[in-house]
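Problem 12. The chain below contains 260 residues. Write out its predicted structure in token notation.
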Amino acid sequence: MGKSRATKAIGIDIGGTGIKGALVDLRTGELLSKRRKVPTPVGGDPREVIDATMEIVRKIWDKDLDGDTDVPVGISVPAIVKHGVTRSAANISPRWIDFAARAAFSEAVGREVALANDADAAGIAEVRFGVAHGRLDSVIMTTLGTGIGTAMFYGGHLFPNSELGHISIGDHSDYEKFASSKVRERDELSFSEWGSRLTPYYRQLEALFSPDVFIVSGGISKQADEFLHYIDVETPIVVAEFMNNAGIVGSACLAAEHWV
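Solution.
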């Protein structure tokens, strides 16, 4: 599969609580349609998630493309993805483990799709068009949502499937279960209290990888002014340009590259 000359693609971002998608301009990273969203089916079963994803794809075909289905489609999922197979299941059904997800999505769409880890897709958007564009140093993208996703880049190149939200820190063997944005809401934490949970996490990443910059993404990034200053690390932290649309844009970029 080679790179396409397509100028637009559909990007779909599947999360633990919601599935969202849009038509994306591949020259600028801008959304060419409204962002469409449906809830992630309770339990996150693969077949139900695929059906919900197709609701969005069909709406984009019908309402934004006048019925044209000849457009690349890229999909990101909260799982490790290797050779089109999901190897883990973060905040979704364990049935995703060792599931031939790309083949299943491709069958539903009617042509081959691109499939990637959700945080990796978000990071790609920022490297291609956003705050990390043109950077050749070490970048770690963190997505704060249902869990904590990560994407690692050096010299503009992705090291895929890093999944650093699951590292062990202190008494917490899976740190995203202690410090994600969803946990902040569940535990009714103030932003300062949440910052005290996030600081050890970012310090651990700092100690392990010495990044030149952290990027924070996810829906909560829209409130970055209220919590970033509570994260006490030496490495600069910046907010993703695409915020909660980063996964959509990155998935669309990958779709074009995988288009036949």
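Discussion. The radius of gyration is 17 Å. Students who got a different answer should revisit the alignment rule from Section 12.3.
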